[in-house]
Design goal:
Helix content: 40-55%
Strand content: 15-25%
Number of helices: 9
Shape: globular
Distance between the termini: 85 Å
Number of strands: 11
Radius of gyration: 24 Å
Largest sheet: 9 strands, mixed
Structural class: alpha/beta
């Protein structure tokens, strides 16, 4: 008798256990999703939500090559340049053309050292002279006057921030954390920007980056992204053409503004 009762009751117990397990996993899924979402949330007050596409270093030929892509979607990007004095006359001319098309030419140091490590060996006055003033002077001599700055390697501290904010409208670092909300500028009056990498080396998928674009629209922010090479398959520090175009098209389809760094920096 006991055996027959067990045979009848067991399937019901099994169903109950399956239902409870599904409920538990659903609850855990919601919890994980909620926790993840809190890392993206930053409600802004920008008149028009947007995206700031930024590119670092001195890959002028590649940036210039994709000027038709930028023009076709009315994109305005920011190019943070280092080693300006080492550019060829033709590359300097290309930079000026990018500027004439509405793009911002910004500053990324004279020789691209890690600023925090540099300060461990030298005084800040030497850094200002060799890595800021000299490089800016080279650009000023050719009629380029950068207003914003990006740290080489994203390496910075409070001392450096205070020093450089005396000279630039904003400074841009890298967002190496899981708190992606840091990369959504909530206003157009920012002093420090934190960019999310869009190169293949960043580890971000194209789908993730497109989700960030949608979140900027949803939260009325400006998403700040950074890349280096464009469509150079010899390095992982590239934004492939297909990825860049998808990001741009997504922004256009959602009615986002393309901001330069200066446009979202303190006035």
């Amino acid at each position: 008798m006991q055996s027959s009762v067990s045979l009848v009751v067991f399937p019901y117990l099994l169903d109950i256990m399956k239902t409870a397990t599904k409920t538990l996993f659903a609850a855990l899924g919601c919890l994980i999703f909620f926790c993840a979402c809190t890392k993206y949330e930053k409600v802004g007050s920008i008149n028009k939500p947007g995206i700031a596409l930024t590119f670092d270093d001195g890959y002028v030929d590649e940036w210039y090559q994709f000027l038709p892509l930028f023009d076709s979607f009315q994109v305005k990007a920011t190019f943070y340049v280092c080693g300006y004095k080492n550019l060829s006359p033709e590359q300097k001319k290309k930079l000026k053309t990018l500027q004439q098309h509405g793009h911002e030419i910004a500053f990324h140091s004279t020789s691209h050292p890690d600023f925090v490590k540099y300060l461990q060996r030298n005084k800040i006055a030497k850094l200002e002279e060799e890595e800021i003033r000299q490089g800016l002077q080279d650009m000023n001599n050719d009629g380029i006057y950068p207003q914003t700055f990006a740290y080489p390697y994203g390496s910075h501290n409070e001392i450096l921030d205070n020093c450089l904010l005396r000279r630039f409208k904003s400074i841009r670092a890298l967002n190496g954390t899981k708190n992606f909300s840091k990369s959504f500028a909530p206003t157009t009056d920012n002093s420090i920007l934190y960019a999310i990498g869009m190169d293949l080396s960043s580890g971000k998928t194209t789908e993730q980056l497109l989700n960030f674009v949608s979140l900027a629209k949803q939260n009325n922010d400006c998403l700040v992204l950074v890349g280096h090479h464009i469509n150079n398959h010899d390095t992982k520090m590239e934004v492939p053409y297909y990825r860049l175009k998808k990001i741009i098209k997504s922004a256009v389809e959602q009615g986002l503004e393309f901001y330069t760094a200066s446009a979202i920096s303190r006035k």
